[in-house]
Amino acid sequence: MTSSNPMAITTETAIHYDIEQAVRDRYSAGAQAPQAALCCPTDGYDGRYLKILPEEIITKDYGCGDPTRYVQAGEVVVDLGSGAGKNCYIMAQKVGAEGRVIGVDMNDEMLALARKYQATIGDQLGYHNVNFVKGKIQDLALNLDQLQAWLNQHPVQSIADLAALETEGDRLRREAPLIATSSVDVVVSNCVLNLVKPQDKNQLFQEIYRILKRGGRAVISDIVCDEPPTDVILNDPDLWSGCIAGAFLESEFLQRFEAAGFYGVEILARQEQPWQVIDGIEFRSLTVQAYKGKEGPCLDRNQAVIYKGPWKAVQDDDGHTLLRGERMAVCEKTFQLYTDPNGPYAHDFIPVLPQTEVPRDSAPVFNCSRDSLRHPRETKGVDYRATLPSAGDCCEPGNCC
Q: What is the CATH number of domain 19-141+177-291?
């Protein structure tokens, strides 16, 4: 799937400060004392999961949504920009002893705060399933603690030393990645993606996609705006570190998931009233869910789906039009995406399987230019002439009248 809106989304405004340093300084201060203006307050967390959390973690949590509510038992979860660890410790309870939570942050003070209570909370739960690692969320293969350990032994004093540092970074990404490829069920983040530099945001979404397993999903809460931030806003380091200047355009936020290869991109929550309005531009929280897993060949196994409605027709991310009530021909891959009970589409479609299964190893390539309707004889077979009695006294599941 590719977006009709090419994702070369960058800002042309020259930014006259170090974005990463501004973010690091602001959140270092936020680890020392609560920052009331840092991101928008979030209500609605399930109080059951807050009972074991120290007050320090709760008061020094900065976010704009609650992606934790979408995590399930047994899952492996990565939290991008985990900060004080509040979301990680909530999810630790939700995924249970069979699950695992990894918090990623680049800020030493925040990591120290999150790790401070790690053993105590694990003892209270009866299991230890949370780990906090140091890394940049746009480079999830590079373990910054390991790179720092190497740097301590090999200080950079020349261009040759700098080249050696870069080589070591490449080696660590390849041989000891911070987060391995296709190793995670869910990636969550709470008001952190906007803090990344504009030139790194494409890589950020590619990294989220890389670490997810096939069928995995991203659930991201972040700040979006209804108009592009002005040059004045972009060049205010307090507004960048305060989750304003780096906000995504609302439509752009969803397009970035699509451009990275995700499907089933969906808005789960949208703040009705803006969190802030600056120069007439509205900034609000948005929570988006997106799935990974549409790679692979398109094989024709005589499968079809029926779109249930309520719309007369809908268009999927690949540009296929699905007509309400019609048997729509789909390839094997699309059939699985539409009917996966754990995916985003299953409640919208009725699967139609062929009378005789077409073996996968002999299935032809699906012809995407063919008529989109699947004739019943394709499903049943051209020579199908069976006459069958009623299967029972009732044609409707449940009670008969």
A: 3.40.50.150
